[in-house]
Specification:
The protein has 20 helices and 3 strands. It is mostly helical. It folds into 2 domains: about 130 residues, no CATH class; about 290 residues, no CATH class. Strands 1-2-3 form a 3-stranded antiparallel beta sheet, with helices on one face. A hairpin with a 7-residue loop joins strand 2 and strand 3. Helix 10 runs antiparallel to helix 11 and helix 13 packs across helix 18. The longest helix is centred in the middle third of the chain and has 31 residues. It is globular, with a radius of gyration of 40 Å. The N and C termini lie far apart (about 90 Å). The C terminus is likely disordered.
Length: about 525
């Protein structure tokens, strides 16, 4: 027995450890009988459990977690976003007519260059037609976001637009477009606004948008040139009546502007710079008024000059410059301010040359900067304001369907201005009140008619004569050095009025946002369902 067990051990050691693991468990049980353990009959008694006295507590139902309370507490402690995180560029669309754009998937990376080219061409067209910097920026952001480009940066100056698209895994794309010409075409600006709105709502693809933009650019203006020339003359005549001129003075202003307008167009065809065109035009207006004074024609020369040069005054450019500064575009605002004051310098230069020429011919030096005193009753002034508003709309090439609404907004603003002056608000606060009224009504009416607010607001504030006060102050400072302090004070007051008017228009636009928000909320809910 010992020899057999030794032989088995040798075989196991030769087979290795795997042989030992393969031995069944029954082979490892020791030989011999298994002892039997007696099992007691009946139920098994349980071990006694010691009783521990528990403290008495009132019966309270188990607390449930309050999710709303935790959310509010988390917002109070953490905030929705980190305080130093940069704002997403798409958030710039909040409050604009293009909020919540419908994003078209599948167009982002493979066609980014085409999308940026279209956005730059759109921005150039809007700048040429007279749009503000904020409207151009929101249009670019809305179009690029709708076509799938969200990681873009936009830089806008006075006459250039830069778009940079930097994808995380791709090569950055930076394109620049310079605007070298401007034209009056508010009707084209309305068509561009409609195109951007259709793109944002997802109804226009990029190729169709290219074709529609080409059609807008090639579309003729709504009014011919002869009608624009006549409208400019009618505007000057109506303004002479508003500031207190006689009917004969209105007639002289109409004829003078017709003559000066034809000369200005001829100089424009010869590519003469705008500075000299403006100076020559103001010279013609002033020399006509001086000749009428020398021949004892019964009219006020200052009224004729004021009505004639009001069309050349960059009132809309000044207001747009202040709006750009308020909306966060200081470079664009500085460029427009410089351009506006160069225009004022050209006007004063032309008037100075005319006065010096008249004095050399033996005429008396007249004061063309006399402030006009409106002596006409309100029921006569209101039709003149309406006529001047329609005339300036035709000169700016506004859409025909916007003529009557713009006239109504201008009349409402003038009534607010007249009421403020009657209440004793002063020459500074009354224009601001009128501008707020114009800003509110312009946003509501323009968006209801599918147009930008600028198209209705700018022609409606011309009656405030914000440029005429700056001209008078610069005239006094330049040609009458003895009254330079008076001119400086007048210039400061004029700048305050312009700031008040521009700020009033922006404030009215922001106050009217709740009145135009329901459409945006409907679009947001529809976009979320999709």
């Amino acid at each position: 027995m010992s020899s057999s067990s030794n032989d088995r051990d040798k075989k196991d050691r030769a087979a290795g450890p795997s042989a030992t693991r393969n031995v069944p468990p029954s082979a490892m049980i020791p030989a011999g009988p298994i002892p039997k353990v007696p099992i007691p009959k009946g139920p098994i008694p349980k071990a006694p459990v010691p009783k521990v006295p528990m403290p008495m507590s009132p019966a309270v139902p188990p607390s449930r977690p309050n999710k709303a309370a935790r959310t509010v507490l988390r917002r109070l402690v953490q905030g929705e976003t980190p305080p130093t995180a940069p704002m997403n560029i798409v958030e710039r669309l909040a409050g604009s007519p293009y909020a919540n754009p419908m994003i078209q998937v599948g167009l982002a990376d493979e066609s980014a260059r085409k999308t940026i080219d279209f956005a730059l061409r759109l921005a150039e067209t809007m700048f040429r037609y007279g749009a503000g910097a904020l409207e151009v920026e929101t249009s670019i952001i809305a179009v690029t976001a709708a076509f799938g480009l969200r990681n873009i940066e936009v830089d806008i100056t006075n006459q250039s637009v830069i778009i940079n698209y930097a994808h995380r895994d791709g090569v950055p794309i930076t394109l620049l477009r310079v605007v070298r010409s401007w034209t009056n075409n508010y009707a084209g600006l309305v068509h561009v606004h409609e195109l951007v709105t259709d793109i944002v709502t997802g109804g226009v693809a990029r190729d169709d948008a290219h074709r529609r933009l080409d059609t807008i650019i090639k579309r003729p203006k709504p009014f011919p040139r002869w009608m624009v020339s006549l409208a400019e003359a009618v505007f000057a005549a109506a303004v002479v009546g508003v500031i207190g001129g006689s009917p004969f003075g209105m007639l002289v202003a109409l004829v003078t502007i017709l003559l000066a307008g034809q000369l200005a167009r001829m100089l424009g065809r010869w590519r003469v710079p705008d500075f000299f065109v403006t100076a020559i035009t103001s010279f013609i207006v002033t020399i006509v008024a001086v000749l009428c004074f020398m021949f004892h024609v019964p009219l006020s020369p200052s009224m004729v000059v004021a009505g004639g040069i009001l069309l050349m005054l960059p009132s809309g450019r000044l207001v747009s410059a202040v709006q750009d500064a308020i909306n966060g575009f200081p470079v664009t605002a500085a460029g427009r301010f410089l351009s506006a004051f160069l225009t004022f310098g050209a006007i004063v230069s032309g008037i100075a040359v005319a006065l010096v020429s008249a004095s050399m011919l033996g005429g008396d030096r007249i004061n063309v900067a006399e402030p006009g005193v409106g002596s006409l009753p309100l029921y006569v002034v209101l039709p003149l304001v309406a006529l001047a508003t329609v005339a300036i709309c035709i000169a700016e090439q506004t859409s025909v369907r916007l003529l009557v609404p713009t006239m109504a907004v201008a009349l409402a603003g003038y009534l607010a201005y007249y009421g403020g002056m009657e209440l004793g608000l002063g020459a500074r606060f009354a224009p601001a009140l009128a501008a707020v009224v114009v800003g509110i009504l312009a946003r509501v009416i323009a968006l209801r008619l599918g147009a930008p607010q600028l198209v209705v607001a700018v022609p409606s504030i011309i009656f405030l004569l914000v440029g005429l006060s700056i001209f008078r102050a610069m005239f006094v400072m330049t040609l009458t050095p003895a009254d330079s302090v008076t001119g400086a004070v007048g210039l400061f007051n004029a700048l305050v009025v312009i700031l008040a008017v521009a700020a009033g228009v922006v404030l009215g636009d922001n106050m009217a946002r709740p009145l135009t928000r329901p459409a945006g909320q409907k679009d947001r809910r529809r976009n979320r369902r999709r």
